[in-house]
Amino acid sequence: MRIHIATDHAGLDFSEQIQTHLREAGHEVVDHGPQSYDPVDDYPSFCINAASATVRDQAAGIQTLGIVFGGSGNGEQIAANKVRGARAALVWNVDTAKLARQHNDANVISIGARQHSLEVAIELIDAFIAEPFSGEERHVRRIAQLAEYEATGLIAGREID
Ligand SMILES: O=C(CO)[C@H](O)[C@H](O)COP(=O)(O)O
């Protein structure tokens, strides 16, 4: 699978080690930065680039997922979700990693590098990558509502309050 990855200064060390893990597992990793440590760098552009590339590859039929990291993962998730078509989930245990795929068909995982050990972060990412979307009708319906809202501001053809 192709994995698009991005972080900021708070996750750089993590990102480098996780990229090694992913490459050893046979994935193609595309690093969206940062390329060097800058304690005052800003996560939005890195994370938006990773999410955009993930959405673009999926639209082209390429099997791909995105990973974004930061100190908490909150801002990184918010940034990724600004990209149309991105469904970024902030994951904090194996259950939320699996549910992000099963129920939400999340295409980007966000993780707080200051919240977990490297071993746990790798466990969360591996669980996320391995889990398929359930494809169940209720989840398909809810995801379609989000996509419709993103595209038109409507849900099921109606304005919402
Ligand atoms: O997690 C993050 C955003 O949600 C950032 O990584 C975090 O805010 C960076 O903090 P600082 O600039 O104090 O190192």
UniProtKB/TrEMBL annotation:
List of residues binding D-ribulose 5-phosphate: 8-9, 71-75, 104, 114, 138, 142
The keyword Isomerase appears for this protein: yes
Any Pfam family the entry gives: LacAB_rpiB
Entry's transmembrane regions: none
SUPFAM superfamilies hit by this protein: Ribose/Galactose isomerase RpiB/AlsB
GO biological process: D-allose catabolic process; pentose-phosphate shunt, non-oxidative branch
Keywords, alphabetical: Isomerase
The reaction(s) this protein catalyses: aldehydo-D-ribose 5-phosphate = D-ribulose 5-phosphate
Self-association and partners: Homodimer.
Protein name (Swiss-Prot/TrEMBL): Ribose-5-phosphate isomerase B
Organismal lineage: Bacteria, Bacillati, Actinomycetota, Actinomycetes, Micrococcales
